[in-house]
Amino acid sequence: MGWLIPKTEEHTIGDSGTSIKIIDRTKGFGEFNKLVKKVILDASNKSSNLIQEMGPVNFILIGFLGRANNILMSSRAKVLVKTNTVLINLNNLLKDQDPKALREYVNNLDRQREYKQVYGTVIHEIFHLYHNFKTKIIVNMQAYSKRLNRYKKKVNNKHPKSVRADVGLFFHNLLIEGLAKYLQYHSSDIFKNKRNLYVLYGEAADKAHKINIFISLFMEQKKEGKVKKRLIKDLRKELYYSKYLIGEYMCERIVASGGEKTETLIKTKPLAFIRKYEAAEKKLGFTPVVSLNSKKGILDYNHALAKLAALSR
Questions:
Q1: Is-above-0.85 flag for pTM?
Q2: Are residues 28 and 128 in the same domain?
Q3: With bands split at pLDDT 50, 70 and 90, how would you rate the model's confidence at 66?
Q4: Domain identity same for 69 and 215
Q5: Does the pLDDT at position 70 exceed 70?
Q6: Gap between the Cα atoms of 98 and 66, Å rounded
């Protein structure tokens, strides 16, 4: 278990003298480990003004090559806001690679591909820390999620109240994940493969339509008394991944309309963010992908929750 003994590096970033710590609890990742550390330094220097404002940031690397670390965390990275820490799982960063060829791959990397992916992950989490530093939004959302989870434990996983909680959480997370994704994309030239807003709109609209379809299928199956586990799994998966794309598109649209700058978006509350997005879409003459309570969006917050609430009576 020697791999758990941390190796700590401290680095000064930017011109302000602000420092970061990289705490390495990994083993067996060879050149990939070095690349991750380089990315952390590059991303930290790029965002040194944010780190200077919120204070030193810790980056903890975990993973043992050849062993799954999903027990510790299922995502590539997450923030621990109380200690200004980004926790990064190296196994999960490489989960798209063939497990049988992993030992060879970590020392013969597709460096450009991995740099871009890891940079996006690291800068995304730094933006989460900064967003929370300015507004406590992640602390508040974690508290909200805990209340929902306690509530969900009281009912069956297939109960409308449980699905309603998941849909509600999706709407609240559009700002958190969407803004971080938007800032991530605009943080470096490595992401600048010019995107078309119309294409992005189409992709976001498609996601909203899929969520509506899943909700409708759930309601039909519930009325028939035979909700399939697969449907619940697919719905939750769609909600999880859609919040990034839809939320990012919403930020792009708001900024494109001239209505807001990212500095003010950071201070916006989750549901007010949806209302601002609706106004931006109206200004530009498009049907909103999501709406708060006007029913003008492809997916409407109040309408979706009301349908599920009625089903549980």
A1: yes
A2: yes
A3: low
A4: no
A5: no
A6: 11
